[in-house]
Each structure stands twice: as C-alpha cells, then as structure tokens.
What does this fold into?
Amino acid sequence: MFGLKELEAFAAVMDSRSLTDSARELYLPKSTMSRRIRHLETALGQRLLRRESNRLIPTEAGHLFYQYCQQILNLASQGHSALEELSQDVSGRLDVYCHDLLLRGWFSRQVLGFMDTHRGLEMQLHTQFNPPGPDMVEGICIWVGSEPDTALRCEKLGVLRQGIYGHPDYLQRLGAISHPREVAEHAWVDLTLQGNQGIELWHPGEGYYRPVGPSRRFAVDSALIQVDAIVNGGGVGLVPHWTVELRMKHHPGTLEQCLPDWQGPSLGVYLLYPYGQQPRRAQVFIDTIRHAVPESWRT
It folds into this structure.
C-alpha cells in the first residue's frame, strides 16, 4: 500500500517535472523523494514517470493516476480542515520568531495574551536575527526590514517610519543637528539588523540625501541596546518613531528627534509562515496578529 506522503511526492514531481525542485519544495532529501516514487510505482504495479534528458516525464499511466492523486490529496486536506474546525481547542506547541525591534513590547504582549486565552497551548518565543531560511518548516515569524527573499508565505503587515534621535543632554553638549551633512560630526549608534546600506534621508522639498559617514560608529545587534546607548549619550541613530513613542510614555524627555523634517528609510513589517495547511493553533495566532497591527503602521 501507499500513503499520502507518496502521493504528495508524486504530485510535486508532476508539477515541477524535476526531482531536485520537488525535494526542495517539500524540504526532503532527494533520496527520500526517489524512494517514495518507487514505492508508489511498486504498489500500483505501473511505471508513472520516465527520465528524458534532465526532466521527468509522466507515462500514460502517470497522466491518468495524477487526476486521482489530486482528488485524494484535496479530500485529505478538506478532511483535515473539517476536523480542525470541529475541535475548538487551541493546544499543542507553537514556535514563534520575532525580529528584535518588535520582540520587547508589542509582540511579547501578543504572545502572553494569546497564551492567557488558550491555556492548553505551549509557546516557544525566539529572537530572529536573520530572515528565516528554507529550514523553517513550521512556526510563525515576524520580520522587520526589506522584504525577505524566502520560500515562505509573506504578508506585509505595515511599515515603521524612522527618524534620527539623540538624548537632549547629548545634543545640547555637542550641538543640535540642523542639516544631514552635520551627522558626520556625531557618533552614530547603528542597529546592524537593519542591514549595512548606509544612511539615506528624505525631505519633501529637497528629496534624498545621503550624508557622509559618521566619524565614529557603534554597531549593535539589539534594538534595546541601541536605544539605551543613545539615551546614555553614546551618539545619535535611526530609530522607528513608533518605538520612540512607546518609550516616551514611560520615560519622557529621554529622546529628542533631530531633523524632524527629514525621514529615514522605512522598515517593512512582515508576517511569514509556511505554505500549506496550518495547524489550528497557528491559524488562530496568525489571525490574532493580523488584528493586532497598530493603526500607525498602516498609514
């Protein structure tokens, strides 16, 4: 007999006509794909595929069986969805990953609130320092920055707009910044998770301006450390306005915007998760995140 795994392997090869591409799509070793195809052909007593040059071509039996294969897989998916809907419990384990910029505050609150609502759920929260790669076969990720080149489903949730900020005492001591060219005279506190693309500012009347690189740069891989360094007089840096607004509610007067008419590069906020049928716990959490996006990110 054969099972759904063999059918999934055969359907993937029929769609791509490549064993290598199909193995990559299903996150399986090529040898496993070959074994599943052979098992299916042995169980059916028919050869379904033949190799021609570098492609896999379906035989007449392969074309015929493919129609039934799709129907079986569709029915299995529908049955799985129906059973998931039948059970209203959100339980099991869910791994979630979040970019450092949103981990403290907004995202952690969503996770804790979700767990409080669904008491039978176990969640593992991870800091995501790089865009998720093909090894992420389950779980949900929030990424901030440019849109990642990924095999995962990618939804844009919103945008974080940035400005240059410093501590008021630091700016009083070393002088306020009145034009982007003066940035070079200050120490720069850089968040390396944003990428090494240099500093580019935009003004509605003057357009884009790329300041000369600062004479001194302090690079960190943590948004929390970056803001702390700026607040403690370590220099100035690009910080999302939304992050500053949250901080100022609890620590007023600790950050002052430089060049308020100039905007730094915007950072996209993306929701990433694998293609295909998701467990109910993942579906419900994804919907929760969609509805929890702050309005300021959408404008």
Observations:
- The longest strand covers residues 92-99.
- The CA atoms of residues 244 and 265 lie 16 Å apart.
- The chain has three domains: 4-86, 92-148+268-298, 162-265.
